[in-house]
């Protein structure tokens, strides 16, 4: 005989044994004074027995209604009916005001509140009002810090089941929403909706202060903080404040040293996905951002934005100490270290300190002898990218920096500034020992070796030392017997240009 104990369901209130779960649920109504249905698992009360039956399947994980198209299962027939409309694209519920259609009546009811301006659900903590109860429930978790929805893969918690569903696509790499115009795919429908407005050039959210319009309300909210100076997101480690939550998240990786975005080509890791995308273009040589004025192309939109200020002459970042203006905020920050004399970046090898981390990285290559930037024309190698760029102008003969006084052109902006002082007679670099002034810091540095007796440039052949590299180069011609400077009149050759100039005076007499 079959054991029926396993199939017997007992009432926890009176001990009555029922042969099925449904009969037990029906019996429970006897104990309810209000003729309501009470869930004996979680205590939730329902006005209809059918609602309790559906709810109870949450605890039993029972889903008897399956979709014939995709086999997805549901706890109730009504949920299945709503789901089927995802396949049929049916939207039977129409708004009487704007004719917008919906697949669920609940969504229509919520939408209708937009027209009536009614927000009946109020948060008791902060007074914020909402169109529907579910939004209020989700919002209340901000105050309670409750995150009941946990990712099975990485254990990250969420206050909203939809956010968990979206997050899970990080692990599955699923991007189910595709743009019909350009084919770009997204993990969230809302991201696709915002993106599509780029194609339609639609910007429905306008700032009341400056009238600037945005694709999404979230972008408008962030922009408004530029006017209010509000920075509601605070770093718990260093107390730095941010106007956007995304910026706080990125900032936190400075403390955690987390670099989750890895290049598939060279395995270099980055803390931001944008940085990885920009870096990847160094492999593909892609430069999709083009200047409308001079057609120069860039791999990063920020570099294009900064470059464009060359044409507009815009220098929005001014130093409060000396009023010098800069096109970039980062350049202003570096400049300020001149006034503070701060040098926080110290070389582990020789102890030399620097104002900027980039300067330390460049300096460190003098110890490692690393020269990662190679000229494609002559294969000469350089420690810095900027030095390579300047060097390339030797091959291209490009001299973009022109003196406004005499028209002389230079390949470097720095050389133009130094030259311009020959017109202004300005000599801002003064020797601390003898007070002699110079128009460039290099000349001061070379001069200072007279006092220190330093001769850092030594000949490898005879060990003779010099204060300047140019003097060493001239000296080396003695050993090579090379005479590159030839007189066009009599073909006599010289090791130094100055000797050729002196010689030419013989022919001019």
UniProtKB/TrEMBL annotation:
GO terms for molecular function: DNA-binding transcription factor activity, RNA polymerase II-specific; RNA polymerase II cis-regulatory region sequence-specific DNA binding; zinc ion binding. It is found in: Nucleus. Its main location: nucleus. Keywords: DNA-binding, Metal-binding, Nucleus, Repeat, Transcription, Transcription regulation, Zinc, Zinc-finger. It comes from the Eukaryota. GO terms for cellular component: chromatin; PcG protein complex; transcription regulator complex. Residues 37-64, 65-92, 93-120, 121-148, 149-176, 177-204, 205-232, 233-260, 261-288, 289-316, 317-344, 345-372, 373-400, 401-428, 429-456, 457-484, 485-509 form the C2H2-type domain. PROSITE patterns: ZINC_FINGER_C2H2_1 (PS00028), ZINC_FINGER_C2H2_2 (PS50157). Pfam families: zf-C2H2. This is C2H2-type domain-containing protein.
């Amino acid at each position: 005989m079959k054991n029926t104990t396993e199939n017997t369901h007992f009432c926890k209130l009176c001990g009555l044994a029922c042969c099925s779960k449904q009969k037990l649920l029906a019996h429970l109504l006897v104990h309810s004074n209000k003729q309501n249905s009470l869930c004996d698992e979680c205590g939730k009360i329902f006005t209809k027995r059918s609602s309790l039956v559906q709810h109870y399947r949450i605890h039993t994980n029972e889903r008897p209604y399956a979709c014939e198209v995709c086999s997805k299962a549901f706890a109730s027939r009504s949920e299945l009916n709503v789901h089927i409309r995802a396949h049929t694209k049916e939207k039977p519920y129409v708004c009487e005001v704007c004719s917008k259609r919906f697949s669920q009546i609940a969504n229509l009811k919520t939408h209708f509140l937009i027209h009536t301006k009614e927000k009946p659900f109020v948060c008791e903590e902060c007074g914020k009002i909402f169109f529907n109860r579910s939004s209020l429930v989700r919002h209340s978790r901000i105050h309670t810090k409750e995150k009941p929805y946990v990712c099975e893969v990485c254990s990250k918690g969420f206050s909203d089941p939809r956010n968990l569903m979206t997050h899970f696509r990080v692990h599955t790499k699923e991007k189910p929403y595709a743009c019909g115009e350009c084919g770009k795919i997204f993990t969230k429908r809302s991201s696709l909706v915002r993106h599509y407005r780029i194609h339609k050039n639609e910007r429905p959210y306008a700032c009341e202060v400056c009238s600037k319009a945005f694709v999404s309300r979230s972008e408008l909210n962030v922009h408004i903080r530029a006017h209010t100076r509000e920075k509601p997101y605070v770093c718990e480690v260093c107390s730095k404040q941010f106007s956007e939550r995304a910026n706080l998240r990125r900032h936190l990786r400075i403390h955690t040293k987390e670099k989750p975005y890895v290049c598939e080509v060279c395995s270099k890791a980055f803390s931001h996905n944008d940085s990885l995308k920009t870096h990847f273009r160094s492999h593909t040589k892609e430069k999709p951002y083009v200047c409308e004025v001079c057609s120069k192309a860039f791999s990063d939109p920020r570099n294009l934005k900064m470059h464009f200020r060359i044409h507009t002459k815009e220098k929005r970042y001014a130093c409060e100490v000396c009023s010098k203006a800069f096109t970039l905020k980062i350049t202003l920050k570096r400049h300020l270290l001149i006034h503070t004399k701060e040098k926080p970046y110290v070389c582990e090898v020789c102890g030399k300190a620097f104002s900027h981390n980039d300067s330390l990285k460049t300096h460190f290559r003098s110890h490692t002898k690393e020269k990662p930037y190679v000229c494609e024309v002559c294969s000469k190698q350089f420690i810095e990218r900027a030095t390579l760029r300047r060097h390339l102008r030797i091959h291209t003969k490009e001299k973009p920096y022109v003196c406004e006084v005499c028209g002389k052109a230079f390949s470097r902006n720095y050389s133009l500034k130094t030259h311009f002082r020959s017109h202004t007679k300005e000599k801002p670099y003064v020797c601390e020992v003898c007070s002699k002034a110079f128009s460039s810091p290099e000349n001061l540095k070379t001069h200072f070796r007279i006092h220190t007796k330093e001769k850092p440039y030594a000949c490898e052949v005879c060990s003779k030392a010099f204060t300047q590299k140019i003097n060493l180069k001239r000296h080396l011609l003695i050993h090579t017997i090379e005479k590159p400077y030839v007189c066009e009149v009599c073909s006599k050759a010289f090791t130094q240009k100055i000797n050729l100039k002196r010689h030419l005076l013989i022919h001019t007499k």
